[in-house]
Amino acid sequence: MNDHVEPRRQPPYVALLAAGAGVAATALVLRWRRGHIFSADTLESGVGMRVIESVTINRPVQELFALWRNLPNVTVVHEVEPESLSWQSPNEGPIQSVGSMRLTPLARGGAQLSVALQYRAPLSRWVESPAARLREDLRRLKQWLEAGEEPTTEGQPSGPRTSTFRFLKDVAA
Amino acid sequence: MKAVCWHGKHDVRVERVSDPAILNPRDAIVRVTSTAICGSDLHLYDGFIPSMASGDILGHEFMGEVVDVGRRVDSLRPGDRVVVPFTIACGACEPCQHGLSSLCDNSNPNAWMAEKLYGFSGSGLFGYSHLYGGYAGGQAEFVRVPFADVGPLKVDGLPDEQVLFLTDIFPTGYMAAENCEIKRGDVVAVWGCGPVGQFAIKSAYLLGAERVIGIDRLPERLRLAREQGLAETIDFDEEDVLERLRLLTGGRGPDACIDAVGLEAHGSGSLGAYYDNVKTKMFMATDRLEALRQAIHACKKGGIVSIPGVYGGYLDKVPMGAAFAKGLTLKMGQTHVHRYLRKLLALIEEGKIDPSFVISHRLPLDRAAEAYRMFHDKADACTKVVLRP
């Protein structure tokens, strides 16, 4: 290392947004949170899952496109700068997926971002709803891009908690 | 540090908890010098607001001295004296940029929860349930303030008691009056002469109302509305509110009606109030809304009903037919505190208003449990309690 440029901290959403990739899709489906749960059998028996989500982000389309273009662990299949991008996961890994996103500039400012994911995941355990996961990932993306941080209360003080509360927090984490 | 913690219905305790720390780059830590109990804290105290958890630190009206700032907070430094809006807002999303800070997109860590209940999530709030973010509140010796580069307002020179209510109730009363779109000659009726109602009365006059009518049943509050607010008053235990309003307005009805009561209205022995009481007690309804029913019923044709009072759930027997038939406009919501701070501070500095007139009790933080009980019971003519950590 010959310079002291602070490595830009990569917000967690970047990994998750590369949801086409194995690692991210694993994160996408492995987590058990918030009651959106269903059996992995659903995934295995069907033709794969398809989820669509949309979010409005108060940033220019060019910036959003560039961010997406530089996601790690995906193979870009098709792109039309700065409005759309399709990708797929690498061939290795247990989870195969394809995804696409579209950016629409808004006259009110900012952009509408729509994401579609389709994938198969051979898992034999309880998993979280991919739709809810994608929605939270896009929310986090918006928070990082607009506010520059993710709102949190993790680590704040409280009075004594009940065992039920601690259990629910553990499950959520 | 010491903090006021919620442990269930009518159970708040002052407890030793760990000190707050900077968790995000835009955070600040404030040493609280004054904090107040809000009427909306009583909704938590009474167990009306869902998603509270045992151990939650209460309090959303507080001010104090900055003791630490995160690395992205350039506008504050340790030693600054600040008032902090009860709404937590990022300042960068579309609602924030349009002055709608209580609707911030990015400040509620539990947005998914609010989306399930309401479709979309408003901003996070201090000390006001996990639905609104689960943030620890400011009825404590110290508090963590997120997005401290856009929220807190520096105040110098004025005593705590004159600026503390910029955090919530003064802007809330002011926005309620502003929502009435007051024109010359307008008559404004205000249901509930608690602190928000008192500020709504004063604000309505500041915004040009010709007459303001305050409605309550507690003698001390009606007296305050008359003497401090210069309002005419109606005691709803003694008089028929609708009949009285018709007579006072020459049969027109008030041009605008403000519901500064919200979901725990007591009503006045009317059928509607009785119905709400039975249903909420049987867990078949979430809100008691007799004040709102009256406001809609009383309002003149084409008028505005402004609702600063808090509602939480699905309201039963809302006279929507009356609202429709009379072409009413309904305006409501949490207060966009950020956009009023400077304007209202200027009114205080110019001596046009001294918000400390609502304070009835001053107690140390240690006596918070007693203060909640007293405020809840309206004992000792309690109108507003300020706690000193």
What is the approximate shape of chain A?
A: globular
End-to-end separation of chain A in angstroms reads: 35 Å
Task: State the domain count of chain A.
Answer: 1
Summed over residues and divided by their number, the pLDDT of chain B gives a mean of: 95
Tally the structural domains of chain B: 2
Outline type of chain B? globular
Q: Any idea what the CATH architecture of chain A is?
A: 2-Layer Sandwich
CATH class of chain A: Alpha Beta
Distance between the termini of chain B: 10 Å
Spans of chain A with pLDDT under 50 lasting ≥5 residues?
1-47
Mind describing the biggest β-sheet of chain A?
Answer: 5 strands, antiparallel
What is the name of the CATH topology of the largest domain in chain B? Quinone Oxidoreductase, Chain A, domain 1
What share of the residues of chain A does DSSP label as strand, in percent? Answer: 25-35%
Q: Structural class per helix/strand content of chain A?
A: alpha+beta
Helix content of chain B: 25-40%
What do we call the CATH homologous superfamily of the largest domain in chain B? Answer: Medium-chain alcohol dehydrogenases, catalytic domain
Structural class of chain B: alpha/beta
- Which series of helices and strands of chain A comes N to C? HHEHEHEEEEEHH
Uncertain runs of chain B are: none
CATH A-level architecture of the largest domain in chain B:
Alpha-Beta Complex
Number of helices of chain A: 6
Question: What topology does this entry show?
Answer:
The complex is a heterodimer of chains A (173) and B (389).
Chain A: H1 12-17, H2 22-30, E1 37-39, H3 41-45, E2 49-57, H4 61-69, E3 75-80, E4 84-88, E5 96-105, E6 111-120, E7 126-128, H5 130-147, H6 163-172
Antiparallel strand pairs in A: 1-7, 2-6, 3-4, 4-5, 5-6
Chain B: E1 2-6, E2 12-16, E3 28-37, H1 39-45, E4 61-69, E5 81-84, E6 87-88, H2 94-97, H3 111-118, E7 124-125, E8 142-145, E9 153-154, H4 160-163, H5 169-178, E10 187-191, H6 195-206, E11 211-216, H7 219-227, E12 232-235, H8 241-248, E13 256-259, H9 271-281, H10 290-298, E14 304-307, H11 320-325, E15 329-332, H12 337-349, E16 361-364, H13 368-377, E17 385-388
Parallel strand pairs in B: 10-11, 10-13, 11-12, 13-14, 14-15, 16-17
Antiparallel strand pairs in B: 1-2, 3-4, 3-8, 3-17, 4-5, 5-9, 6-7
Helix pairs in contact in B: 5-6, 5-12
